[in-house]
């Protein structure tokens, strides 16, 4: 059974979820279906990923009750603005084939466009209308978070950001903790092979008789973050989810965190534009 974190709006979120950025030729419905069978209950998609159709198909076909599955999707940059955000959500609902969205995020703040506050206002109203259960953001800095709270009085329940041992985001995680925001980690395994071969990761894997990937995902969990690993392989999906029956020592956590070197995707939220 996957542990959960309680969000500031009183709902809960599983401590680990499935990312759904599509790989070439992948059958997303099959990927999500096997993940649900393995025990995943948090599925993260986005309008921009073009995977909502497969996600929705798997959720509708699954024997897992709909109320037990938390589906996240995101508003892309081309739909920033009050009316545009509502249009984006309607497109996502149609694509997913679901009657509501469990967690809706702003995908990127796009400060040059300067419409993320209006987008956030639309999301607040969509939540009031029951179309969306919980609302949050992705790739927001402390300054972006401060602004939406200052101008609307409503804080996001999560902020999904690039986070892995090469970029632990300690200051932002501390800000989140202080303001009751749960941290979600995209690209939680970095680019994969290099990170998984790093000495602190390999040594912890040997010490606990687990895989390097499990060590890194456990590191996220012990930082209080919710990692969203992506895998279409059923065995790897199960392995990624199996991180809750061992614990890293504080020394191991610190050693893995010491791998910090900065962003690996060169996507600074103050300048990155993604529509």
UniProtKB/TrEMBL annotation:
GO terms for molecular function: oxidoreductase activity, acting on the CH-OH group of donors, NAD or NADP as acceptor. Gene3D superfamilies: NADP-dependent oxidoreductase domain. Substrate binds at residue 107. Transmembrane segments: none annotated. The active site is at residue 49. It comes from the Bacteria. Residues 16-259 form the NADP-dependent oxidoreductase domain. It comes from Rhodococcoides kyotonense. Belongs to the aldo/keto reductase family. This is Aldo/keto reductase. It holds the Pfam family Aldo_ket_red. The keyword NADP applies. Keywords: NADP, Oxidoreductase. The record marks 74 as: Lowers pKa of active site Tyr. Coiled coil: none annotated.
